[in-house]
């Protein structure tokens, strides 16, 4: 089959590699144009564009998906199928261009976690299981009939980075299976049950701020869901830091301390009182610096028992 692959982040790279190595032909790769990213606001290429260029594939970097020029460019490719992985919402005018329509790989067991951040929200909500879904794209986001699904457990030590990497690899295999089913005409796509829908909205900056009055378990899951990026943030002595690895300690409720206050300091652990239970901090990232263990952080930043995280 002739495929047009659409994606942006590194999550989509394994799928591009797997499809390029399959019997299918990738006639073009579509991604966003280079954008300003990071603290330095440097112009950077999308991970998918970088990979596709290195593979010698035809790359289209388009900002306006509704432009008539872009539509004509896609039509001239005569693709059998559009394959979308972590890209953008396709206009209705593009979805039906290919012979077999357009499919999407989504990082959840649809209809659970429809939206932009399914992997993050599964972790933030403390789920024990997640999965991947392929489905036919329709104009309404993430609502199309499901073709294939794959379940996988969420490990207690998984964070967003680790889980995304695993799911990106597994998703590439699911896409190949899905495309083979479409090619053979043996798909049996199942309509989603709207009564079971949950949402996974985009992570906003306000969502990343740690509220120390919340339970330790909830904050631990927030850290997992936002590591390595965008990071769960807090303030200590006027400095903004991201908490990047934690553990929950329910053996000592630290009732003599207020939420956010440091109750114990050891060489490699700082213990903080929360609204319920204690949160043990293992790794942090000072604004503008690399991530480091809490011991290394304290070599250049003095912390004392009773010091308080948060505003």
Radius of gyration: 22 Å
CATH-wise, what's the superfamily of the largest domain? Answer: Formyl transferase, N-terminal domain
Envelope shape: elongated
Tally of strands: 15
By helix and strand content, what is the structural category? alpha/beta
Helix content: 25-40%
Question: Looking across the biggest beta sheet, what order are the strands in?
Answer: 5-2-1-6-7-8-9
How does the SSE layout of this entry go?
Blueprint: E1 2-7, H1 13-20, E2 25-31, E3 35-37, E4 42-44, H2 47-54, E5 59-61, H3 68-75, E6 81-85, H4 92-95, E7 102-106, H5 118-124, E8 129-136, E9 146-153, H6 160-184, H7 216-226, E10 232-236, E11 239-249, E12 262-265, E13 270-273, E14 278-286, E15 292-293, H8 294-300
Parallel strand pairs: 1-2, 1-6, 2-5, 6-7
Antiparallel strand pairs: 3-4, 7-8, 8-9, 10-11, 11-14, 12-13, 13-14, 14-15
Helix pairs in contact: 1-6, 5-7
What does this structure look like?
By secondary structure, the chain is α/β, with parallel strands linked by helices. The protein has two domains: 2-196, Rossmann fold, CATH 3.40.50.170; 205-300, Formyl transferase, C-terminal domain (Methionyl-tRNA Fmet Formyltransferase, Chain A, domain 2). Helices cover 25% and strands 27% of the residues. The chain has helices at residues 13-20, 47-54, 68-75, 92-95, 118-124, 160-184, 216-226, 294-300, and strands at 2-7, 25-31, 35-37, 42-44, 59-61, 81-85, 102-106, 129-136, 146-153, 232-236, 239-249, 262-265, 270-273, 278-286, 292-293. Strands 5-2-1-6-7-8-9 form a seven-stranded mixed beta sheet. Strands 10, 11, 12, 13, 14 and 15 form a six-stranded antiparallel beta sheet that branches. The longest helix has 25 residues, at 160-184. It is elongated and about 65 Å long.
């Amino acid at each position: 089959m002739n495929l047009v692959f659409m994606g942006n982040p590194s999550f989509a790279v394994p799928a591009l590699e797997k499809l390029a190595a399959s019997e299918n032909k990738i006639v073009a790769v579509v991604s966003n144009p280079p954008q300003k990213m990071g603290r330095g606001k440097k112009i950077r290429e999308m991970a998918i564009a970088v990979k596709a260029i290195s593979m010698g594939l035809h790359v289209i970097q388009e900002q306006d998906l509704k432009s008539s020029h872009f539509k004509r460019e896609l039509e001239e490719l005569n693709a059998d199928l559009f394959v979308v992985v972590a890209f953008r919402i396709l206009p209705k005018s593009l979805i039906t261009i290919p012979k077999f329509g357009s499919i999407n790989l989504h990082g959840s067991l649809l209809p659970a976690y429809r939206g932009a951040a399914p992997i993050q929200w599964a972790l933030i909500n403390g789920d024990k299981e997640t999965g991947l879904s392929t489905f036919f794209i329709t104009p309404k986001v993430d609502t199309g009939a499901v073709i294939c699904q794959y379940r996988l457990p969420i490990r207690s030590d998984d964070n967003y980075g680790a889980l995304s990497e695993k799911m990106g690899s597994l998703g590439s295999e699911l896409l190949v299976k899905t495309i083979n089913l479409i090619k053979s005409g043996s798909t049996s796509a199942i309509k989603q049950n709207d009564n079971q829908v949950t949402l996974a909205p985009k992570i906003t900056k306000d969502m990343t701020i740690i509220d120390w009055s919340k339970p330790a378990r909830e904050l631990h899951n927030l850290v997992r869901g936002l590591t390595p990026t965008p990071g769960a943030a807090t303030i200590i002595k006027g400095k903004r830091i991201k908490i990047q690895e934690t553990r929950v300690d329910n053996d000592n409720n630290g009732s003599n301390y207020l939420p956010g206050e440091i109750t114990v300091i050891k060489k490699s652990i700082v213990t903080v009182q929360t609204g319920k239970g204690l949160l043990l901090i293992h790794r942090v990232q000072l604004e503008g610096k690399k991530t480091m263990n809490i011991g290394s952080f304290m070599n250049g930043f003095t912390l004392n028992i009773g010091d308080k995280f948060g505003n």
